[in-house]
Amino acid sequence: MHPFTVALIGGIASGKSAAARRFAALGAGVVDADVVARELVEPGMPALAEIAAAFGTRLLDENGSLERAEMRALIFGDDEARRRLEAILHPRVRAEMLVRTDAVTGPYALLVVPLYVETGGYDWADRVVVVDLPRELQLARAIARDGMAPSLAEAMIDAQASREERLAKADDVIDNSGTPDALDAQVAVLHRKYLELAAARR
């Protein structure tokens, strides 16, 4: 039986990682899709070989590692390329996420899944919490955090599910348009709620 599982979702620069760190500090067992995806494309891994075969070795650096900036620029300028990459990576990521979810020893598992709405397949999650903020603030934070061109930040946001589509999936919502203290408070309330729900399930 899977542990009680919460999927934490949100668009680029919404603050998913900041929220996940707070849940982890309170004792949740965090399983992060971005971490899993990075491990799956390390040199020598089958997914990286498949990516190189599909897109060419120009996406590899001199050490044989994936050139992430190059890859990001390619897929967010080309819908077909993005779909090809997702077909290679997402099934592998989901399978590994399930293995790691079942290995969680904390009171509940928190899955950090940026593309939850877009990819589907995480039906073992008992609950969905959305980290939400207005698009204008999301765009400003993406540009400030990653130093990317506004046009690329816009393209990345547009390539993801809309704010409305994410909120339609939400059981719970974290408003991350405010201060770090406000984020702390919301995470603490939800953590207590998830402890209760996990205890009731056992």
Describe what this molecule looks like in 3D.
The chain starts with a strand and ends with a helix. It has one domain: Rossmann fold (3-Layer(aba) Sandwich). It has ten helices and five strands. α7 packs across α8. It has a five-stranded parallel beta sheet with strand order 2-3-1-4-5, with helices on both faces. The protein is globular. It has 202 residues and is an alpha/beta fold.
The residue fraction in helices comes out at: 55-70%
CATH architecture descriptor text: 3-Layer(aba) Sandwich
Quickly count the domains: 1
Mean pLDDT: 93
Tell me the strand percentage band.
5-15%
Which structural class is indicated by helix and strand composition?
Answer: alpha/beta
Shape: globular
CATH homologous superfamily placement: P-loop containing nucleotide triphosphate hydrolases
Q: How do the helices and strands follow one another from N- to C-terminus? A: EHEHHHHEHEHHHEH
Question: What distance lies between the first and last C-alpha atoms, to the nearest angstrom?
Answer: 10 Å
Helix run count: 10
Beta strands, count:
5
Radius of gyration: 17 Å
Brief sketch in words of this structure:
With 202 residues, the protein is α/β, with parallel strands linked by helices.
